[in-house]
Amino acid sequence: MFKRSRISDNCPRYQPPGVASAFGESHFLTFDGVNYTFNGKGEFVLTRVNDRLHKFEVQGRFEQPKPRHPNMPKINETRLMAVVARDNLSSVVEFRVRPTAARWQYQLFVIVDKEYVYFPDRNLRTQYFKGVTLYQPLLMYNMSHIVAMFDSGAGIEVTFRKGHMTSCVYLPDTFKNKTRGLLGKWSGRKDDDFTSPDEEVYVPPGASSYQIHHQFAMKYRVTEAMNDKVGRSLFFHDAVQFSEYDDPSFIPKFEFKLFVNAISWNMTFCVIC
């Protein structure tokens, strides 16, 4: 009886969470370990679960960086600049990179239900909202690293480091085989990661970046209008209107080599945090 009742030291029933990430200049690592790049401009579904038991949404905003000098040509790539999430009936939590001139103290804007939230001292390191807890890790004081844990067991970890934003998404095992979005269909298989929202198109992982862009990723673009397959934008458009971010006609460069050390650094970050 004792052996059956006590918690085992080796955790035989423990199911590790699914982990996926979006980072930097539009790099993605899916829940099943497929890495690729997608340089869409606008707001897109990172992952979405919409069934009878769970309704979980994470969206990312990707913006085209401005040239360092006015007379330089535009850069034909995009970067992750904001992430927003909601779990069932929880508060809507948004993380947004601050403009360069506004980073003298804090690196990120944190917005909960359209209200700006701050972590000014250690007494407010953990803050509770409807269905979600926000936490700034120890030894962090500049809001460059924030964790959001939702009541469903899902979590998001957002960091801003050396000019690049990284978002790691953690999902409990109960979400398996239910996700759709740029972070892939979490099924334990790589061949179905690039599944369209209507599940009618399956793009193989070895497809060209052009195919991935047009046949898979662009189908997860969200707008301010509701769409049954991808939802609608959850972002708070207070300072800049949605139309200023959204550009479905944007044509990126498709011959982009994904450096191995970038993937290695990102995987290390997601595992140790």
UniProtKB/TrEMBL annotation:
Superkingdom of origin organism: Eukaryota
Membrane-spanning segments: none
UniProt xrefs under PROSITE patterns: VWFD
Domain VWFD: start-end pairs: 18-228
Designated name of the protein: Protein mesh
